[in-house]
Design brief:
five-stranded parallel beta sheet, 3 domains, 15 helices, binds fe (ii) ion, Hypothetical protein af1432, 445 residues, three-stranded antiparallel beta sheet, Molybdopterin biosynthesis moea protein, domain 2, 11% strand, alpha/beta, Rossmann fold
């Protein structure tokens, strides 16, 4: 059936009667009305053949009494061929009962008696045509709704797929970004470690000082429940706190603090400001620069460079100050007694140069970091190749490359980065001697 709304002149009507005069008379009657396209058949068989071709017949008017096939029989078969066509039966009074049965069975929309009166017949055919149009329109609308539903479903499926694709794309991008971020962080951490190595090379009076302060200050931050980000920042600040010493003269670095003249003392004090200035160009290091600037402020306000006092000193700088002072005291004592002696030495500093609020964190952190100095643990030495280095080993002598570049200072504790750096350097500029390391008895077992 045509999907578009069927206009009135397109309604096809099939007239079926074995009497040619009757079909001619009916055609004449209908031809006066130009909304009908009239077809004629003079037997049930011919009519069925015609319906097989003309499937868009809208109204069928059939005589009941015909040889071979009655009108009711024909209309029942016609219903199978063109179920939407509206069927009308013309019948004589003698056949009324059979006609009523046909109507009840649904084969016929209406019956009209013969001989007919024109007006009721035309009205019945007009109503049948109207009925057909309604059925056709209903069918068209149903088909349209179904099509739109299918389109909507298809659109929904495509949208769902697109959302899934987008989500997967975003997840991949996010993973890529996380990887790049991790690489950047690792690269940043390696750069900081390298800088710390440079600082230690410069100041030979305190081997491993930057790394030791970094370890201790990280343990203190852990004990004070700093966030991961804050711990990372304070560790970097610990590694770089003396970066300003890189610019100090050899003469000054060779002398001990007690022997400085007032001019030399001022030059020494400048290392905190110079340290901040050195890294201030790097935005990611700027906050660390503030901690570097203030790591020699005293809690009582008598430190340098800005004589800040109490809580006005950034907390991170107060932690570094305590760790720095402890580490410098530690190396003044024999290993067997260093931890206790250094802590005892600091007792008079709490509330003066050091903030008493960080005392517990320092004492606990020192126990954790310097447990290797415990006298109950035997420290042994061994000679190893670069491939035999392990995390936790301590370097027994200054380590030089094959051509004489100082790589690491005596006393440095090997972590993964230091081991990787030594292995890389060994490939580029190999040294001949094995590396002398110190390690705890448990590490040999
Ligand atoms: Fe310093
Ligand atoms: Fe220091």
């Amino acid at each position: 059936m045509n999907e578009m709304l069927i206009s009135e002149d397109e309604i096809k009507i099939l007239l079926v009667d074995d009497e040619v005069n009757i079909t001619k008379a009916l055609r004449r009657l209908l031809m006066d009305n130009d909304q009908y396209d009239v077809h004629i058949a003079n037997s049930g068989r011919d009519a069925l053949d015609l319906l097989a071709e003309e499937t868009d017949i809208g109204v069928i008017v059939s005589d009941q009494r015909m040889p071979e096939m009655t009108g009711v029989e024909f209309l029942s078969k016609a219903r199978d061929l063109v179920p939407d066509a509206v069927r009308i039966l013309l019948t004589g009074y003698a056949d009324i009962e059979a006609s009523i049965d046909a109507i009840n069975e649904g084969a016929v929309f209406r019956y009209l008696t013969k001989p007919w009166e024109d007006e009721p017949l035309l009205r019945a055919i007009s109503e049948a045509a109207c009925n057909y149009r309604l059925i056709a329109e209903n069918k068209r609308l149903n088909a349209l709704v179904l099509k739109q539903k299918e389109e909507l479903q298809e659109w929904n499926n495509r949208l769902k797929q697109r959302v899934l694709d987008q989500t997967s794309h975003i997840r991949n991008k996010s993973d890529d970004l996380a990887n790049v971020n991790l690489q950047l962080r690792n690269s940043f951490a390696e750069t900081i470690e390298s800088l710390a190595g440079l600082i230690e090379m410069r100041d030979r009076r305190a081997p491993g000082h930057s790394r030791n302060v970094a370890e201790l200050v990280t343990a203190m931050a852990e004990n004070m429940n700093f966030s991961v980000e804050e711990k990372s920042q304070i560790r970097s600040a610990g590694l770089l706190h003396d970066i300003g010493k890189i610019g100090m003269s050899d003469r000054l670095l060779e002398k001990s603090l007690q022997d400085y003249s007032s001019k030399e003392r001022q030059e020494y004090r400048n290392h905190v400001v110079r340290g901040q200035a050195a890294i201030d160009m790097v935005p990611a290091l700027r906050e660390i620069g503030v901690l570097i600037r203030h790591h020699h402020e005293r809690f009582d306000g008598r430190g340098f460079p800005d004589q800040l006092k109490g809580n006005a000193i950034p907390l991170g700088a107060r932690l570094i100050c305590a760790a720095d002072m402890f580490e410098r005291k530690l190396i003044q004592f024999p290993e067997s007694d260093a931890l206790t002696s250094a802590l005892t030495e600091l007792e008079c500093e709490w509330g003066k140069s050091l903030d008493p609020k960080v005392r517990l964190a320092l004492e606990e952190g020192a126990q954790q970091v310097y447990c290797s100095l415990d006298i109950s643990v035997e420290v042994l030495e061994a000679k190893v190749s670069p491939t035999e280095l392990e995390v936790g080993m301590q370097l027994g002598d200054d380590l030089y490359s094959g051509t004489g570049v100082l790589l690491l200072k005596q006393g440095t504790f090997f972590d993964e980065n230091a081991i990787a750096a030594v292995k890389r350097c060994f490939m580029i500029d190999p040294f001949e001697r094995d590396i002398r390391v110190l390690l705890k008895r448990t590490e040999l077992d």
